[in-house]
Amino acid sequence: MAQERLPSRSASGLTSLSLRGADLGSAGAIVQLEPKTDSKPRKRRKNTKQVSNPSTQGCPISIRPDILLDRIRRVKCDETKPQCMRCTNTGRKCDGYPHAAALDQDKSHSPGNFPVPASTSAHETPAPVLEFPSADPILLRHSLLDFQGTQIEHRYLDFFHSQTAPSLAGHFDGYFWTTIVPQIGCSEASVRHAMIALGSFHESFSLEEMGMTDSGLQFALRQYNKAIRDLTFSKKLREENVAAVLTTCILFICLDLLRGNLKQAVDHITGGIRILNAHQMSISNYLNPKVPTSFEMDFIGIFSRLIVQGNLCGYPLPPLQLASTNTVSDLDIMQGPFITIDDARKSLGDIMMFAMPYIQTCMSLKFLPDKECLESSKATRERILNQLEVWRKRMDLFIVEKYPDGKHEDMGIYTLFSGYQNSAIWTKIVIYEEECAWDGEIECFREMVSLARSVTDNSSNKTRKGPYSLVGLPRRSPKRPLWRDAITFEMGILPHLYFTAVRCRDSKLRREAIKLLGLARPRREGFWDARILIKVAKRVVEIEEDGLSGEGLPVEEKRVHDTYILDECQNSSRMQKIVIITKREGEWNFKEEMIPL
To answer: CA 439 to CA 594: how far, in whole Å?
Structure first.
């Protein structure tokens, strides 16, 4: 529907990703306003509003739009040596290392701070400091629910805060979802309504109903439309608060992915990329590049991972035009352990982004052979494999430093290694036309299944207590309901298990992968729905092993070269249309099928 899309004009007139004090509603943030250069000292306003109580945190604060906002989050020190990464990235003065304070006196170029205008004088009157409610989860929840709304709106906003936000992060740091999004939602109606709609949809999936009642669906769609209305008619929001616009856009993407509306999700992703690119172009140029702040990096990371997901599922997306980022050559030479697990995830994502055109080219060469293009692709192939090997070595060093005894149950590490194996297999084999080339990677498939098993063994038993406001029980009551993670915004193990099921022709191993698809939690990871993947994988196995006796491998002409899951039926609960591609006697065959779900 046309009304569901982000207005294209929202990409214009963007000047700063920083949030105004009223827009941020930052629980626990200390906001410092940089004064303009003036020969006369600025008189203090008598009517300045200050937020000192969480219950008043929705009050508007008058801030001139030409004043740069330096947003610093109050976060716990992660005690990373030699400097706390979380404090360094957010611009917070770290209290964990008293002797390291002198090492970073100049904060003007810190990634967590917006640059001070050149005209600012050191002799000017210090900027006023506004304190907002703490980022403590309990106080943030109190601030988030402090708005005029119906009981059911409060119910699902609370559900989003306690259940949906942690689930969306998957096995990685959920600070963006559990803190940043609620902070913005405290003061921006479009974000709040999108959170309520997503919480309502998520509850039905958490209950394993895979659907909603008519009244529940109508409520969620009304909240969705309210978010669109607030975003469309708030010109001031679109022009001054890019972060709120991008956050609303990301929540819209979550909603569409959860509903199975992949085309609509791709439209929102494309719109978000355009907004982010326009912002990057407005604040930086070739002669004056600007290092993205940690807050901007949150959005850059999310859209980068969405681009990878979309391309893997056959949805080409425009690239991000970043003003300052690691170059491709950095992936070849960077040494030493990763600093954090998120650092490792970003590096692997960069490699996957670089590898995507190569994989797409090789897939097209199957149908339109080109010897010259094939030769150039071989050089690219070796470079990607080298980057993956560098990544593996750095990851091994990271694990040795973090877990000296070699024992850990970090599901994020298992997930990343599974993605590494998938990328390595694809890079090595996709250049060959024959499907039998995949048979040489059975041991790599076996390792990938083993990694996925470690994740499913942990996640299938993982539960989280439901929000107490839903049932009116005390917070520590043992009667509070338990919820399992049903969705995540991030790519986890589902695509890797599906890839194993359709490309690995070892009968036992591919069936183990299908079994794990059924056990995996969450059931939906970004673009991937386990329910659909299981049915498609079983159909591929059925086609390839028809008439096969014993433990042998299918002959080349019986193998499926590729499958496409078509959009038309992805929001249906009963049937799904797919395209199966095979090659018989040198001729390509494209066959559409409807499979029951």
So the answer is: 29
